[in-house]
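User: structure tokens for this one?
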Amino acid sequence: MIILDYWWQLLVGALLVYFVCNTNFAILISKNIKHKDIRTVGSGNPGTTNMIRAFGFKWGACTFVLDATKGALSVALGLILFGNIADNYVITRFAGYFFAMSAILGHVFPVCLKFKGGKGLATTIGAFMVLDPLWTGIFLATGVILLVIWDYMSVFALFFATSLLVKNIIAVVNDALISASGVAFAFIIAIAVVWTVVIVAHRSNIKRLFTACENKTGIHKLFKKKNNG
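Assistant:
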């Protein structure tokens, strides 16, 4: 299997990405700019939604962009690095997915923060905007529409993560070069891990959604406040 020929380079790169993505921008922004730890406010989750609720749309959007950039740069690193090292489409493509998985794991389960990180949605969006910009953009736009209609981040997360899972598995299976090299299963595992991590991170939200107890993001209230202002 071609992946095994580059196992240590993939492992070293993935570990680097994991530790860099332990950096949590919600915590950095809240503590250094707002002088209040986001983990002690609202739901306690150091992520975009809680930042919006606690400090407003501007700081939530800033957190989202930074977390998404973290995912995008991780994938770009994998594609560029292995594009030069291996000069092989299959291993380069796999490095992109593998580094995306590492970035999301680093964000959601950061060892530097006792494995208590954000929920990984923004990092996932950033990573897959590099891997598959067209379909990720379509799923993102559709997810935003669902978010605006229902104002539930869990609806957005469930739709977006599942759409990415299905689409990317289909793409991998239908890719002649990946299938011919016999590594399609490794790709599918990396994609499935991403989906699992995002869903597990949102499990309490999804459970509340199906029991009609889910908290809204507060986006509707922000829009009303701006319109009234």
